[in-house]
Amino acid sequence: MNDLLPLLLQGAWVTVQVTFWGSLLAIVSAVIAALGRLSPIAPLRWLAITYIEIFRGTSLLVQLFWLYFVLPMPPFNIEMSAFAVAVVGLGLHIGAYGAEVMRGAINSVAKGQYEACTALNMRPSKRFLRIILPQALLAAIPPGTNLLIELLKNTSLVSLITLSDLAFRARQLDQATFMTLEIFALALLMYFVMAQVINLGMRLLEKRLSRGRMRGGLQ
User: Which GO cellular component terms are attached (predicted)?
Assistant: First the structure.
């Protein structure tokens, strides 16, 4: 058992890195796509819709295969490492779902907030960054937490593009030692712990944003 843990932890560290960078990309993609979806400019709106529908409407595994196996071929000739493919594939996939969450969150901000900003002669960019976005992020945190945990669980697919993540290490050790119960019990526990860390982090973020909103309302 002592020999299993270090190798599983190596795989878990890869999973953590993919989850972290994939989550950042997903959040950025979600915000940008949500803004595009709400844009009055038709080309931007249709571009955002196309991205959202393609990544929501196709298999994540096929998307990863496309990025890893198809893009390096002509006429694309775009080659990325397995790690980069994992981050990009997971980030864009979850970001497409997150875009609809963010769109709903932005639309949930009371119209009076927009009117107050207009009355204060606030620039649109400042209005969005200072007033609208913080409130939208607060509303998006609960469903967004679920999406980030889903991203974590989906990292198990990246082993199919040769990345030595936790799932890859678990299968590798199982084939070498036949200690199936012990190995997959440890892997299951590690995924659970990582999911709880995400959950805790998002709860802390939600509390911080809530306090900031309360202070802003009192000023």
Answer: ATP-binding cassette (ABC) transporter complex
Q: How many domains does the chain have?
A: 1
Longest dimension (CA), the chain: 69
Residue 15 within any structural domain of the chain: yes
Sequence-distant (≥ 6) Cβ neighbours of residue 210 within 8 angstroms: 138
Secondary structure of residue 161 in the 3-state scheme: helix
pLDDT in single tens digits along all 219 residues of the chain: 567 888 999 999 999 999 999 999 999 999 999 999 999 999 999 999 999 999 999 999 999 999 999 999 999 999 999 999 999 999 999 999 999 999 999 888 887 877 787 777 788 778 888 888 888 888 999 999 999 999 999 999 999 999 999 999 999 999 988 889 999 999 999 999 999 999 999 999 888 888 766 554 434
Asked if residue 217 is part of any domain, the answer here is no
Q: Which two tokens stand for residue 202?
A: 């998002």
Residue closest to 114 by CA, chosen among 104, 103, 124, 99: 124
* CATH code of the domain containing 18: 1.10.3720.10
Rounded to 5 degrees, φ, ψ at 72 are -70, -15
Q: Which domain holds residue 177?
A: 3-211
Query: Does the residue 142 lie in any domain?
Result: yes
Residue 154 structure tokens: 């989906």
Rounded distance, CA 24 to CA 37, Å? 20
